[in-house]
Write a structure and sequence with these properties.
alpha+beta; 3-stranded antiparallel β-sheet; 90 residues
């Protein structure tokens, strides 16, 4: 998992994403990605919240997606004893 690291160069803050893993039993930085100043990070987050509209859509078979939404009643677990089965009535 990456961690956010700040470096101060000539009085300005710059941010990096760093991935750390254990190599030979010791932690080691295996990957570093430059993110830039905080203004660039904020701008990227604000524009990422507006997803791009889809350009095309392709329908292969009618009702394939509807089959995924067909409600299936949950099965009653046979391994639960006594009162716990009351929560799993199907």
């Amino acid at each position: 998992m990456p961690s956010l690291t700040r470096k101060i160069i000539k009085g300005r803050s710059y941010y990096y994403a760093r991935w750390c893993q254990r190599v030979g039993g010791r932690p080691k930085i295996v990957k570093t990605a430059y993110l830039g100043p905080i203004e660039n990070i904020v701008q990227a987050v604000e524009t990422a919240q507006q997803p791009l509209p889809p350009q095309t859509a392709e329908v292969s078979h009618f009702a394939d997606v509807a089959a995924l939404y067909d409600p299936i009643p949950p099965a009653k677990p046979s391994w639960l004893p006594g009162f716990a089965t009351a929560f799993f009535r199907g």
